[in-house]
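Help!! Second protein's tokens look totally different from the first
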Amino acid sequence: MTTDRIPVTVLTGYLGAGKTTLLNRILSETHGKKYAVIVNEFGEVGIDNELVVNADEEVFEMNNGCICCTVRGDLIRIIEGLMKRKGRFDSILIETTGLADPAPVAQTFFVDDDVRARASLDSIVTVVDARHVLTRLTDSHEAEEQIAFADVLLLNKVDLVTADEVAVVERRIRTINGYAPVHKTTRCGIDLDQVLDRRAFDLNRILEIEPLFLSEDEHQHDDAIKSVSFVLNRSLDAEKFQRWIGSVLREKGVDILRSKGILDFAGSARRHVYQAVHMLMDGAPGRPWARGDTRSSKLVFIGRNLDVDALRQGFENCAA
């Protein structure tokens, strides 16, 4: 990698594995570096850009499509635009949607001449959900590809499983990728030297995994997985929302791979950040609402067999 090319780190991993947690950890630590951040979402309503904690960074959002399919042209245009502003940042971080196959993302840095001349793919960092990955490997081609293409693997959420279960998961990961180092983490807690500036991407290794890597063949997603998004321009009653979302996850959590939201709770000066993976739910106060902000609530579900009308009605019934 020559010094005049901007290093790019791709953060990937299945829905809810902890990619945004890792991104926020990178942006929050004191390292003296400036990053340009590209965030991709699968759905019409953007949530992830609001989950990125450091507002000083340049965040470019691409939604309503997968970064490895319909919006890849947008990725190329954003990177080419960034290259014209060289000197304003040290590196580029790309957080893919949890449904992305990393191969077409990595292809971008080899098949587009302008991108290849100005940017270098430093590494693909894959975050793995220790609790759910074995299930995902049975029903998701993307989950396996994300692990296979990784230069660095974070086996995350090890606090949610037993030591024996961690060992089983690690052995399974090793059958897919015996090359990448595996770091066991809770909330993606790791020395950033282990994930950044690794110069770890090895094209020859990838060509062994996927000989047609440099071709531009399209890939297919699981058509059964859909994203639905809702926006409500009225404040929510916090207790109503907690009761409703709790019942939804208890009854439908097996089919809901991921849900997340930025919520306006009545009487609160701060946004409420809601996130869940299947039935595991978490919530915390977010950034304060600033003067002049249009307060609204955004909620996204990604999963199978989603009853859109019932979800919309239930969400609207949570209005204060």
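Here's the second one for comparison:
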Amino acid sequence: MLLCEDDASVCELVRTVLTSQGYTVLAAKQPQEAESICRENGAPRGHLVDGRDHARKSGPELAKKIAESNSHIRVLYMSGYIDDSLLRQEIQEQGTAYLQKPFSPLSLAKKVREVLDSLPVR
């Protein structure tokens, strides 16, 4: 599972929660690093993306790029920006899962399981 999260404390929390649930988590701080991980390890089955715009690429752009090499990718956007209407609209149009920050470890684990059990992104 790939996690792209630029906040170190959130990244560590998510990684800890998911590894305790039995998932293998590869973490990246920036989209470019996430792409590099995919090139080196192959595209993951599950892909968690922070939905906020990173320096050069947004969460949806990163997901689309990774989905080009893996048509079975599942995506969960996580964002703490309550008023990010453009992101929410893009996510809604794609029919992609979303988890509002802050979230509890239990809600994260449940949402990840729900996303991994769902149909892949088109």
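Reply: Different proteins will give different token patterns, so don't panic. The CA atoms of residues 45 and 82 lie 28 Å apart.
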